[in-house]
Please model this.
Amino acid sequence: MSKTLLQTTIAGSLPKPAWLAQPNQLWAPWLPEGESLSEAKRDATRLAVRDQERAGIDILSDGEQSRRHFVTGYLEHLKGIDFEHLVTMHIRQRYDARVPQVVGPIVRPRPVHSDDVRLLRAETDHPIKFTLPGPMTIVDTLHDAYYKDRARLAMEFAKILNREARELERLGVNVIQFDEPAFNVDAYVDDVRSWGIEALERAADGLKCKTAVHICYGYGIQANIEWKKTLGSQWRQYEQTFPLIARSKIEQVSLECHNSKVPLELIGLLKGKDVMVGAIDVATERVETPEEVARTIRAALKFVAPGKLYPCTNCGMVPLPRAVALGKLHALAAGARIVRAELAKAAARRKR
Ligand code: ZN
Model:
């Protein structure tokens, strides 16, 4: 049987219901407590699965409903990190954030996301993707008062992430994606080359499921919108990192395309890789039409074969209103259906 072309998926996060966390904000605190919180997270995950299935998304995520933030949501389960004495740090070379500190050896006392994956696996028959923060982005989201060596710290995290990823794979995850927005910061390009890719490959080492990396221009928050204004008429950050990723063992790359100034021909630098093409803008509450999504997919098809193109969102949708995110899920699936039908028609014509 031939594989479905243009399988849709999302970068990772979805907005949380208002009964779980304050809507429309990053790092929103949880509203319920104790066992009610655990139950509320599970219910929110079930809804995230249903919403994606109903919209027609093919490869499902848990919408990151059990995490407050894609980086600290993992770190808070580790030992050696002090969350009580936060420090202000300029992260991604873009904005100040209150971040935790590394104060001792990093240890993972127990698996972090096993229960989340068991739930996700039990709730759907679709292929599932699970996202983890990438080692370099983790290092960029905390203050290191212990190792005092970013490359070494990244490698410590990579080992921990690898153990986690192997367990999640055993529980039935089809795709493990590491989120590395830090790869897109101009000032880090040398670090990406000298240790970022190595740490990423260490995190993905030995996995038999699909391995992916997500590199984007960030959520649609004000600091990112301002940053994008400084990047000029062409965003060429991917030009530095894609050739490095093309040579790596990572199989899939999730990138930002729709409404961005990324020259699409840069996708050509990812020869041989699966490409998750961002066809949904997460920086606007305007819901795309299916035709707009289709146009972005068609444009990307000039540089990647249909069997290797996965229509996706530009980034996570957690700060968006829920109804907007739901509309965008439907638009994404509908846009992919349009292009799929066109490809089927063209193939039938060729056969005649
Ligand atoms: Zn992103």
About this structure: The CA atoms of residues 46 and 57 lie 15 Å apart. The chain is about 40% helix and 15% strand. The domain at 34-351 is CATH 3.20.20.210 (TIM Barrel). The first strand starts at residue 79 and ends at 91.
